[in-house]
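Hi R.,

As promised on Friday, here is the backbone we talked about, encoded as structure tokens. Could you run it through your design pipeline when you get a chance and send me back a sequence?
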């Protein structure tokens, strides 16, 4: 008997930015979001046996979406874009699904124009803005985040070779006008290499979706639109 799961939510893959840990996107994609986010492990988890792990995740996403959708949307922010593209490559080559990739605030694959130190400082600054004013971020937590960023940057070198062939699957680009980690040259790179993608810009910085519900809703709308576009 055929197992009909058409009533289930559509899934999409959510790839974490550098330094992020589990549930980073929990506020961005709350329980009432009409799609079900599958949080992909951070880039640092793919440093060893990269191809095997990418294939395993691609197959898992195929299985989770077997009865609900023909395509799989992959969302990546910042360094997570490389992982989203690499997974798109494996989904296209090793599964029956069609990948669509949403790129947010990223330099061109394999060409990071920022250091791990700069990225760490930006993350900590954003957390300070998000946390209540009476809460001070412990120095030990800052060191923890910085270490995870270094690990993610190191792993990205192994991921990017699989990401480059998948730029053709980019269907949407999201950039902040005040993003100091994503330069105008980066935006031009994406505009020229993913010329068919829809472009969305917002007034805000690199982690705008963490600080503004209006920007968070923009992200949600883009993902929903990409999921149900033909």
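Update: got your reply. Pasting your designed sequence below so it's all in one thread:
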């Amino acid at each position: 008997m055929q197992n009909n799961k058409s009533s289930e939510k559509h899934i999409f893959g959510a790839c974490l930015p550098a330094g992020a840990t589990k549930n980073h996107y929990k506020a961005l994609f709350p329980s009432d979001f009409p799609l079900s986010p599958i949080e992909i492990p951070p880039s640092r988890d793919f440093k060893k046996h990269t191809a095997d792990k990418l294939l395993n995740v691609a197959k898992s996403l195929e299985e989770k979406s077997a009865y609900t959708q023909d395509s799989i949307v992959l969302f990546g922010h910042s360094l997570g874009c490389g992982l989203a593209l690499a997974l798109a490559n494996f989904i296209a080559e090793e599964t029956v699904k069609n990948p669509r990739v949403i790129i947010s605030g990223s330099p061109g694959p394999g060409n990071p124009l920022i250091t791990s130190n700069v990225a760490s400082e930006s993350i900590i600054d954003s957390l300070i803005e998000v946390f209540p004013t009476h809460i001070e971020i412990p120095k030990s937590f800052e060191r923890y985040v910085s270490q995870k960023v270094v690990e993610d940057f190191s792993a990205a070198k192994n991921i990017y070779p699989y990401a480059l062939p998948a730029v053709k699957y980019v269907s949407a680009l999201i950039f902040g006008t005040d993003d100091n980690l994503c330069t105008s040259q980066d935006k031009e790179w994406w505009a020229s290499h993913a010329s068919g993608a829809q472009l969305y810009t917002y007034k805000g910085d690199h982690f705008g979706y963490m600080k503004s519900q209006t920007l968070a809703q923009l992200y949600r709308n883009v993902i929903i639109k990409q999921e149900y576009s033909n």
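One thing I noticed while checking it: The chain has a mean pLDDT of 89.

Thanks again,
M.
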